[in-house]
From TrEMBL:
The keyword Cell membrane applies. SUPFAM superfamilies: MetI-like. InterPro entries: ABC_transporter_permease (IPR051393), MetI-like (IPR000515), MetI-like_sf (IPR035906). Keywords: Cell membrane, Membrane, Transmembrane, Transmembrane helix, Transport. It is found in: Cell membrane. Residues 76-289 form the ABC transmembrane type-1 domain. Its main location: membrane. The chain crosses the membrane at residues 20-44, 82-101, 113-134, 160-184, 214-234, 268-288. Belongs to the binding-protein-dependent transport system permease family. It comes from Hydrococcus rivularis NIES-593. This is Sugar ABC transporter permease.
């Protein structure tokens, strides 16, 4: 009887747990899982949007089109270039700033607030501000010319347009990851540093032998979130180029290309196939990162 009553209690607890989870599960189902299933469905169909909505099964034709689409190759190249530059930059700078602000310096609370301001500012607003800064007669070129450095056509030169977006995004995303690193640094027991100091370890030794190893799980999180965010670059590229991905497709990203096919060309099936391909790339890169950190004994 006692075992039966314990089993009944466990069943009641499980039922209560699922009942409390139900609202969240319903929201996830409606706004996450159903759209994913619908995107998979669209990727195998030719969708007629204008007039009466209709679907025509085309099999894997949308996916085979991707291999012959030069704009897809250009978009993926731009996106990979962006990821390779921005993710390491924002990770390293965030760690450096967090380490500095974790030290006992005067006014560090004020500096933390100031550094975090770009994170709470709208991405669209930041992009418009940087467009003003990058203007031919804007603040950046005036500063460069004042110190005797060459100026650039940041918005119209295909060689530097994507780099301009990189600089803006590194500046705006570093504070968010800085706060994550700062929280992790404050969780490291001070006794470890005191013991190392007694053993004769200098600050550099303590950083590389204590701080970095203990921050590996946080670094994994920062890198994964950075990769996911950078692969999904859209709004800055859209505003910079007025939705075209120019100049000369230099700021064309995969998400912007998906938008163009879905809402300008109204080729929903092909856009869904591109979206699934991008999701697959992000998943593969994330799994590679996870395997790397597992090999570094991260659990």
């Amino acid at each position: 009887m006692k075992k039966k009553s314990q089993k009944k209690v466990l069943q009641q607890e499980a039922s209560s747990g699922y009942l409390f989870m139900a609202p969240s599960l319903i929201i996830l189902g409606v706004f996450l899982f159903l759209p994913i299933l619908y995107a998979i469905f669209l990727s195998f169909h030719k969708v007629q949007v204008l007039g009466e909505l209709s679907y025509r099964l085309v099999g894997s034709r949308n996916f085979s089109r991707i291999l012959d689409d030069e704009r897809v190759l250009m978009a993926f190249k731009n996106t990979f270039d962006y990821v390779i530059v921005v993710v390491p930059s924002q990770t390293i700078l965030a760690l450096i700033l967090a380490t500095i602000l974790n030290a006992s310096i005067k006014g560090r609370q004020l500096f933390r607030v100031i550094f975090f301001l770009p994170t709470v500012t709208s991405s669209a607003v930041l992009t418009l501000i940087f467009i003003w800064i990058y203007n031919s007669n804007g603040l950046l070129n005036n500063l460069l010319s004042h110190v005797g450095l060459p100026t650039y056509n940041w918005l119209g030169d295909p060689q530097v347009a994507l780099k301009a977006i990189m600089i803006m995004n590194v500046w705006s995303t570093v504070p968010f990851f800085m706060v994550i690193y700062l929280a992790a640094l404050q969780d490291i027991p001070s006794e470890l540093y005191e013991a190392a100091k007694i053993d004769g370890a200098n600050e550099c030794d303590r950083f590389f032998n204590i701080t970095l190893p203990l921050l590996k799980p946080v670094t994994f999180f920062v890198i994964v979130m950075g990769i996911i965010g950078t692969f999904q670059l859209f709004d800055q590229s859209y505003i910079f180029s007025n939705g075209s991905g120019g100049p000369n497709n230099s700021t064309l990203t995969v998400v912007l290309l998906i938008y163009q096919y879905a809402f300008k060309s109204l080729d929903m099936g092909y856009a869904a196939a591109l979206a699934l391909m991008l999701a697959g790339v992000i998943l593969i890169v994330t799994l590679i990162q996870r395997r790397f950190f597992q090999n570094e004994k991260i659990s």
